[in-house]
Amino acid sequence: MGHLSALPPPAASGHRAYRPFLAQTKIAPSPGGGAGAAPDGLLLWRAAVAIAARRSNWAASAGTIVNPIDVPLLSFSEVAERLEAFQASGARKQNYMAMYSSIFGGITTDPSAMVIPIDDHMVHRGHGVFDTAAIMDGHIYELQQHLDRFLKSAQMAKIQLPFDRSRIQSVLIQTVCASKCTQGSLRYWLSVGPGDFQLSSLGCTNPALYAIVIDSPSLPVPSGCKVVTSSIPMKSPQFAVMKNVNYLPNALTKVEGEENGGFTGIWLDDEGFVAEGSNMNVGFVTRNKELILPRFDNILSGCTAKRVLDLAGQLVDDGRLSGITTRNVSVQEGKAADEMMLIGSGILVKPVVQWDEQMVGSGKEGPIAQALFNLILEDMRSGPPSVRIAVPY
C-alpha cells in the first residue's frame, strides 16, 4: 500500500472541515508499481479508512472521549461522492451493468447507485425470494421457467407482488436491454419491502422488486473438482424448495468445501440420502450407464437440472445412456458411480472427480458430463423459443 502523509489535525468543529476527507489523503506511488500495484481508487479508499482509524486510536491513547464529530455527518451529495469513491476503489469483483428498483421506479447503469433501503425486510429479516437467469448471445435463457419458480417462491413466502407477472417480465427484459450486456446473468429479488425494523411485515406497504445484470464474458469450464460431505445442517424441506434469500447454510457449506480443498459441500437428507450441493443439483452416472438425480421433493427444483434431464434423452437415443431417472441415491452408491456431476445455472455441468477421500470413477472428467455440458451450452445458444427470449437492445 502507498505511504500516507502526516496525520492532519482534527477539525475544530462542524462536519464541513471533514468534507474533503478523501482529498486530504496524499498517497505516494506504490513501491515498484507495475501490474501488481493496487488501483489508485483502492489505495485512496484504504488510506481514508486508515486515517479514520488512526484518529480514533490517537484519541483513545490520549485518554479522551472520541468527539462524535470524528464520524462525519454527510449530506446526500456527500454520501453519493463516497459511494462513487468506493466504486472506484476496485473492491467489487464483478461488473454490474444495470439495476432496476421498484423503490425508485427505474433503471440505473451507475453501480454506485445500485443500493437498497437498509430497512427493507429482505435485508434484516431475510423476508425475500430471488432467482437467476443466464444471458447468452443477447438472449435470456429459461426466463419463463425461472419466473414460474420465482413467483411460486414468493407465494410460499407470503410476499405480495408489486405488479403482475407480465409487468415483472417486461421490467426484467428492459433491464437487460438497458445494460447492453449480451453474456452474463440476470438476478432478481422480490421482498416484502422497506418500512421498519419489526419482525412482522405489517408495516411494509410497498413490496419491492429489484433486478441486476452482471456481465460475465467468460464461459464456465467443465473441469473436474473435489466435493466434501457437508457437516452443515441442510434446510428443512419447506425452505429448501423455496428459493429464499436465507442462504447462510448454503454459504457455509460452500466455505466448508473450500476449506477442505474442494469446490463445495454435498448435503445429505435426514435419511442419509444425497440431497444437493450448496447451490446446485447433483447427478450420477451408474456403471450400467443410467443417469440419476435425487428427487426434487425436499430440495430445490433446479431449472438447469430439469433442462439437462430433458436434453439427456438424446444420449439415450444414441446409446450413450441406458436410461434417466430421479430417485434416492445413497452415499455408497454415489461414490461407486462411474461419474458424478454438479448441475446449476452458474456452472452448467461440472464433473466431480473426488468425493471426500475417494476418487469417483476413473478420477477424471467423464464423457457423459462433458456431453451434457455441450448439450446445455448449445441449448443456450440455439435452443427453441420456449427457452430463449431475444433482448431488444
Automatic annotation (TrEMBL):
SUPFAM superfamilies: D-aminoacid aminotransferase-like PLP-dependent enzymes (SSF56752). Pfam families: Aminotran_4 (PF01063). The keyword rRNA-binding does not apply. GO terms for biological process: amino acid biosynthetic process; carboxylic acid biosynthetic process; carboxylic acid metabolic process. GO terms for molecular function: catalytic activity. Keywords: Pyridoxal phosphate. Belongs to the class-IV pyridoxal-phosphate-dependent aminotransferase family. This is Uncharacterized protein. The lineage of its organism: Eukaryota, Viridiplantae, Streptophyta, Embryophyta, Tracheophyta.
